[in-house]
Amino acid sequence: RLEEFLKKEVDLELSTLPDFEERVIDFSEVEHLMNSINTIPAPCAPVINPQAPNAATGTSLRVCWGLFSDDTVECYQLCYKPVSNERHSDEQAEHTLKVKETYCTITNLLPNTQYEFWVSALNASGISPPSERAVYVTAPSPPTIKTKMIRSCENAALVCWESRDINPVDSYMVEL
């Protein structure tokens, strides 16, 4: 019977045309809801760490910070400037770096100089408020030994030096 059925010619034309209504559906509310689900909030302010021991050389500083939330962060914006009582435009210039990690080593700094640092977190939704500001200090330059003033005898030696730093140095360590 199947063979007979397949041999027959079947007319697939519809006797009447379907009557479809043209409707315009407003999906703007649904689209807004879908977008709000996928939107991530701007991150919270990071917390900058105080200067760690051995985190400085005469010309560099290692700055670290953390984020105490589960915020999504794409990168951080680290800002810094030298701390100065004087108002020199070049010395007071703010510097900004984009950083992927929660730490950064800043180079080409002045020896024995205080720098003020603050950091913000960024993601697709925006930028966080800045962290509190932290002051870091570069290590002093090594002193210059005054070789013409060196004196010695059997049980003692006199060594004189001078600091090349503008800011006062707290102490010196003499090694023999």
TrEMBL record:
Cross-referenced CDD domains: FN3
Annotated Gene3D superfamilies: Immunoglobulins (2.60.40.10)
Cross-referenced Pfam families: fn3
InterPro entries xref list: E3_ligase_FN3/SPRY, FN3_dom, FN3_sf, Ig-like_fold
Residue ranges annotated for the Fibronectin type-III domain, each copy included: 46-142
Name listed for the protein in its UniProt record: FSD2 protein
UniProt source species: Bucorvus abyssinicus (Northern ground-hornbill)
Taxonomy of the source species: Eukaryota, Metazoa, Chordata, Craniata, Vertebrata
